[in-house]
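User: Please predict the structure of the protein below. I'd like the answer in C-alpha cell form so I can feed it into my own downstream comparison script.

Assistant: Understood. Taking the following sequence of 280 residues as input:
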Amino acid sequence: MGFRDRGIEIKTPEQIATMRRAGLLVGQTLELLRKEVRVGISTKELDAIAEDNIRSAGAVPSFKGYGEPPFPGTICASVNDEVVHGVPGSRVLADGDIISIDCGAITLDDSGQGWHGDAAITVAVGEVPAEVAELMRVTEESLWRGLAAARLGGKVADISQAVESYVRGEGPYGIVEHFTGHGIGSEMHQPPDVPNLGGNRLLSPKLVQGMALAVEPMITLGSKDTVVYDDDWTVATSDGSWAAHFEHSFTLTQRGAWVLTALDGGEERLTALGVPFGGS
C-alpha cells in the first residue's frame, strides 16, 4: 500500500475488494435493522441484532471498544434530536420517532489485515410528520449528490460543495459542521476529512484511484450547533430540533464511483443522477 497527499491511504484493488466485503456486510446489517425497527423495540435490542449478524459472518464490529471512553455498542443509535454517536441502551422506540443507525464492520484480507466498512441510515418509526419525512429525504439525497460529484482528478471539496448546495436549495436546514465524513480503510477514521460544507477547493485533497471515503451528511430542522451528553459520546442538537444522518463509504474506479456499502454498489441511484457507475 502507498501513502500520499497528507497521509491519505491509497489501497490496492485487492484491498478495495476486501473493503467491499466489509461494506456489503454493513449494508446487509443496516437493511436487517431497518426491518427490525418498530414501536416497542429498544436500541439495545437493535444493537444485539447487529452484533450477532456481523460476528456470524466472521467479521468484527468497528465501533465496539472504539475511542476513549470505549464505545460500548456495535451500532450508534441516535433518536430524534440526537445527531450521531448515540449509545444503545434501554430506550424504547415510540410511534413517530426517527432513529439514525450508524454501523461499521471489519473484514480481514489474506494477510490478516482488517479493512473497514461504515454506513448509516435514518429510519422512521411508524408515522412521522411531513417535515421530518422531508428532512430524511433531503439528507439522503444530499449524500447521493455528494457521491455523484466525485471524479478522479477532482477534489474532496467537490463532494462537500454538492452536499451543501443541495441542502441549501431545499430549505433552511442546519448543516452540522463539527462532525464530518472521513477517509476509511485499514482504520475506520483516516485523513482526509470530508466536510458537508464547501470549502477552499485549492487546498482540498485530490481524488485519486485507491482512495476510499465515507460521506455522511448530518442535517437538522433547526440549529447546526450541537452538544455532547454526559456519556461523552451522544451528540444532540443544541436547540432540540430533530436530525437525520445518512452515510456511505465509496471509492473511485476509472469508470466512476463505486459505493462499497450499497448493496448494488450504488448503481441505481448514480445512474438516476446521470453519472457513470464504477463498480463491477
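That's the full C-alpha cell string. The chain is about 30% helix and 25% strand.
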